[in-house]
Amino acid sequence: MVSPNISDKDFRYQVPPEDVLIGYKNKIVDTVNRVCKKLHLDDYEIEINLCLLNSIIIRVDERRDYYRYFHSTEEKVMKISRGKELALLAYWIVKYKPFRIKTVAKEEEFYCKYRCSFNEAFAAMVIAAFVTEKTLYQGVFFTADKINTMIYDLFNRDISKEAMIMYVEAFISDDISE
User: How far apart are CA 93 and CA 88, in angstroms?
Assistant: First the structure.
């Protein structure tokens, strides 16, 4: 986190305090549980590699500081939008794969059924939930085909961080910044 006491020439990234990291991890674990419940994945016991999850949280926080430090002006302090932050979270989850299904047999069963790992399914659900919340679309915006296409893209395509941000933000209108 950027300290207001650090000058431009002395800026060095600082890892957030432990209570902030633990709070963020707990939110992600809670979201994993909600996604499993919503998708009726009770048969699959999800293991979380907390070291990888911690690395993801720090990566997202580094980008948050990057926006504040390099994009702020004297008139306005820039903050990363929720859409960008969520897109980066999805990107790093797909890249680092912090989630796995406990047994190999169940993991293979999941792959055969959904053609992806739990990481891509989780990232797609988080993106879909965010977009649905932000667009306030009254109908069914994400059909099963659209979700399957998103999961296919996350699993099979080489998507950069910037492309992931554009992918997520392309779904929401320009007037939404938080």
Answer: 8
- Residues 107, 101 contacting (CB under 8 angstroms): yes
Maximum distance among all Cα pairs of the chain, rounded to whole angstroms: 56
Residue 101 gets which letter from DSSP?
E
Highest mean pLDDT among 8-22, 31-45, 90-104, 125-139: 90-104
User: What integer is the mean pLDDT of 66-79?
Assistant: 78
If you average pLDDT over residues 18-36, what whole number do you get? 95
CA angle 33, 114, 159 (to 5 degrees): 85
d(Cα 169, Cα 176) in Å, to the nearest integer?
9
Instruction: Tell me the two tokens of residue 41.
Output: 């994945």
**Closest residue by Cα to residue 97 from 127, 62, 121, 114:** 121
